[in-house]
Amino acid sequence: DQQVKQNSPSLSVQEGRISILNCDYTNSMFDYFLWYKKYPAEGPTFLISISSIKDKNEDGRFTVFLNKSAKHLSLHIVPSQPGDSAVYFCASPGHTGANSKLTFGKGITLSVRP
Amino acid sequence: EAQVTQNPRYLITVTGKKLTVTCSQNMNHEYMSWYRQDPGLGLRQIYYSMNVEVTDKGDVPEGYKVSRKEKRNFPLILESPSPNQTSLYFCASRGWGNTKNIQYFGAGTRLSVL
User: What is the C-alpha to C-alpha distance for residues A81 and A18, in angstroms, rounded to an integer?
Assistant: First the structure.
């Protein structure tokens, strides 16, 4: 039973355009979400997070939107750059205060074409 | 430099031959965890540790052991490896002062069990 879902395994966009990576979750108790980025032969690195008390969090070219009623979040990258090509994981520690275990989605492979 | 270090990075072994993957962090983090990444499944937690001498099972603990005798080290032990443990393994750590639940990952250990 997958509680964090990334249903699109891959995305290809042109350099300079917007990349939109989607993530859905099933447990309405989840109140915090993180996006991790992973390059080949490296471990995941933290990118951006959002708490359920917000519906948007922005950090430079990266913005995460949270729609609690739809149990959906999305990561926007504007403008996309070739260096953004990587696997992106959506994750949640579940309910605040719970074990720190991160539940990950399967990941989305983003390719940014020059 | 703050980091999580895993060794070895690559390992090929045979069924039944005991092995240990080491993990060390230099950030004085209390929480440490092991994940495995498999194609189409994302990252799944194997074991975690809230602090020294405190460990517990994650989602896929079968066939693995861990220990936490020191704060900085969290080795993963496969007493009798089997081919279904062929995977990419990541160690992660987090400090309790980090309210964003950002976990820092090692570079990964790619294990092949023949």
Answer: 10
